[in-house]
Amino acid sequence: MNIVLIHRADLDKRPPVLSAAINIISLGHNLTIITTGVSDKVKCELEKLNVNIIVVKYKMHKNPFELIIRTIKYRNKIRKTLKKFSEDYYTLWIEGNYTISSLFGIFNKYTYYLQIQELYKNKIEYLTTKYVIKNAKGVFMPEYNRSHIYRLFFNLSKLPYILPNKPYFIPNENELDSLKNKYPDIVRSLMDKKIILYQGALTDERKLDKFLIAFNRLKEYTVVLLGKDHGVLSRYKKLNPDIIHIPFITAPDYLMITSLAYIGIVTYVPDTLNTIYCAPNKISEYTAFGIPILANDIPGLRYQVQYNDIGVVVNEENENDIISSFLHIVNNYSKYSSACVRYFNSIDNKSTIKKALQDS
Please, is 155 exposed, middle or buried when counting C-beta atoms within 10 Å of its C-beta (0-12, 13-18, 19+)? Predict the structure, then answer.
């Protein structure tokens, strides 16, 4: 099969897209990726696998007017690019709400699949998704509850395929050693420390305040925040002055930091369906290295973490519950770490994609 994957984002910042792409290639299909940006490193790795990369630039908008103008320009560029690909010979793989809402009406004449990471966030995304979802040959979503929500919202005849956000590139021991040599100052700062790690964007959507206050009581552990700060870091440092912040590192290099952690934190403010039924990349990234998880108690995390026994969910409003749950993991570390590895190895996205492409 000849597949053209389109997504309106920077490829390096979308691990689930990279994972899907590699799985498609490993199944023996020919793949072209149309993206808005890609690093030389990722491009080189994909081209080694005979992936054709086409970059269609999209400059991020600063206001609604720019959004409209730049979306129209993006639509026109994609329309022109797709003329190179016959609808009789190529199948499209459309990733993301932004891409769907930007391109609806353009790709409908093709056979297409939808990889939808987030639940829709506004009326435009709802209407554009409704317009295209029922004619898709297959729909992929990263989380069990989100799949059921979309089946209900859009009256789908079958449940969307569940494609967890499992990274394809997990560095082996030799690769981890090479990455440690690449970032000697960071490694030196973390040496001989028992690390409580939070990785991901530092935002108010993923508040860490209560955790950081509680962790002040665990002096033998070091809290490391790995990710870009979006205006909360100064507040966090007042709550826990000993935290170490490591800014954004590109994939898969940041997984070297992940591999050094002792326990991983996952937390979301439950103020939207997207956060209540979250699908964080970091769950698979932590479990890949056998790192147990401490998570706040919301439906998406309770289902993933507690059901699979890969950590403990806590009442984040209760400092004592955070500490006792943390110590429970410490005292049963081998059990939780082994469960993490089993969970990670049980996710078989390649088989899911293979089945979806065959069913069509």
Answer: exposed
Contact 353, 24 (CB under 8 A): yes
pLDDT digit string, tens, across residues 190-228: 999 999 999 999 999 899 999 999 999 999 999 999 999
Determine phi and psi for 209, rounding to 5 degrees: -50, -55
Cα-Cα-Cα-Cα dihedral sign, residues 161, 206, 257, 334: negative
DSSP 3-state of 210: helix
Residue carrying the six token digits 């560095």: 171
Two structure tokens written together for 221: 């552990």
Euclidean distance between CA atoms 3 and 339, whole angstroms: 36
- Residues 315-326 as b or e (16 or more Cβ within 10 Å = b): ebeebebbeebb
| CA–CA dist 252, 254 (Å, integer) | 6
CA–CA gap between residue 35 and residue 15 (Å, rounded): 13
Q: Which amino acid is at 228?
A: K
Please list, residue by residue across 225-243, b when 16 or more beta carbons sit within 10 angstroms of its beta carbon and e when fewer do: bbbeeeebbeebeebbeeb
**What is the predicted pLDDT for the residue at 275?**
92
Say which DSSP state 202 is in: B
Q: Among all chains, which residue has been given the structure tokens 């690909």? A: 85
DSSP string, 94-119: EESHHHHHHHTTTSTTSEEEEE--S-
Distance between CA atoms of 59 and 81, rounded to whole angstroms?
18
Per-residue DSSP letter, 28: T
Check residue 347 and report its DSSP letter. Answer: -
Q: How many CA atoms lie within 13 A of 347 on its CB side?
A: 27
| Cis bond upstream, residue 252 (ω within 30) | yes
How many angstroms separate the Cα of 1 from the Cα of each of 25, 35, 75? 10, 20, 25
If one counts every other C-beta atom within 10 angstroms of the C-beta of residue 32, the result is 19
Quick check: pTM over 0.85? yes
* Under-50 pLDDT residues of the chain: none
Percent helix, strand, coil in the chain, to 5, is 45, 20, 35
